[in-house]
Fold this sequence. Notes:
By secondary structure, the chain is an alpha/beta fold. The protein is built from 11 helices and 11 strands. An 11-stranded mixed sheet has the order 3-2-4-11-10-9-8-7-1-5-6, with helices on both faces. Helix 4 (54-66) crosses helix 8 (215-224). The longest helix is centred in the last third of the chain and has 16 residues, at 284-299.
Amino acid sequence: MSSPVNDIEAARRGLAEFAGRAEASSPLYAHLAGKAAEDDEVAGLLVDAPEPDGELLLAVAHRLLQADPIHPLTRYYPTLGGFDGVDAETWPMFRTFLLERADRARALLASRVVRNNDVQRAALLYPALSAVAKQAKGTIGLIEVGACAGLLLGLDKFGYRYHCDDGVQHTAGPTKAAVGLHCAVAGPGFGGPRKKLSLGERVGLDPAPVDLADEDELAWLDACIWADQPERVRLLRTAAAAQGKNPPDVVAGDGAADLASVAERLPSDAPLVVMNSNTMPHMGEQGRATYVAALAALAEQRPLWWVSHEPYEQGIAEVLPGRDDLGPGAGVLSVAHWSGPEPDVTVLATTDLHGGRMTWLG
């Protein structure tokens, strides 16, 4: 864990940056983070946190409110049953609520990091894995780097419906799946993924795996979802319940240093896919380069495809430089395959980062 920020200006900048990022999809969080960036007492809570992360402060407030569900602030939190939009009372009530619990907030800020296991992103990854399955001509072995609780490892058990902008719909996955996902698709050429995906053994790799059987850990995943996006909480809980009887195998380790040893857990004769989504921004610049080098080294040992869904500048820019048309801000869905020293990279789509829509390019 890095040292505390100890800088109110860094905390305010972190809150302002998050407010800007949330503006397009979360009016509540954009409002609260923007106000917090102008308030030294609230921003000051972040001073003892490892990073000046505005999203973390909002997640901590969400977690504290989960523990006090009759507080009037919940009326602004759809994840907790609220229906009210932002008004003149939202910020004063939030500010009072958080500062009254300042000690508990500081303890959470010092010990937690934002964790997401966004099930909706499976709707983006499924077509990419379908494309790989067509090339690989066999049952795929799967490693997810940055797996968190491993919910995306069960993506072949989800149902999918793709709504194209020309009115055509495509479906895939089991007919009676517990988890059903919808994705809007723009752009020509999307013919829909395979109805059924042949996934074999699979394993997740994460620095700090989340145990789905631990209700406190699952509640923290809930809290990290933005509070005016209740559908994401519903999908998280549904997927967790569906996988509860057969939890995914997620190994604690580093995405680069431990990739080769985790790959040894899977059959050596199976085509191997390494998958990551919204993970590489957390690796840092040097970490991303080391991760890609580990992928290339593993590709020398066995057939390997890399399915990536990340912001361009913090993802496939490592192997496909000069594509400024793919950024900034959007997610980029891609498949890379090594047949020599350099990978062949196919950009399949640009996406929103949570997986509700994509523009198909592949």
